[in-house]
Specification:
Length: 91
């Protein structure tokens, strides 16, 4: 029989977070939890719904094209720099 509530450690493991990251999300109010006295507990169905609503779909990273252009330009510039043998370039 599945437990009705999960501890912070169990929920962190279930979500793939460290306990520190989960506590941070609790303090910021980003994740659904239940306070039972001094104890923090989680319901699996609440976490499943939260993950569905907060998951990101894979797609192009904003600015990726610009990053590739900048890296290409940097590589071209570095290839153009002539450093005498035995010297270290300190750009």
């Amino acid at each position: 029989m599945e437990k009705k509530y999960m501890t912070v450690r169990e929920a962190a493991s279930y979500l793939g977070y460290t306990t520190g990251t989960l506590y941070h999300k609790i303090r910021k109010g980003e994740v659904p939890y239940i306070k039972l006295g001094y104890n923090i507990r989680f319901r699996r169905k609440d976490l499943d719904e939260w993950m569905r609503n907060h998951s990101r779909r894979p797609g192009p990273t904003p600015g990726k094209r610009e990053l590739v252009k900048a890296l290409t330009k940097t590589a071209e510039l570095l290839q153009a720099v002539k450093v005498p043998e035995g010297k270290v370039y300190k750009g």
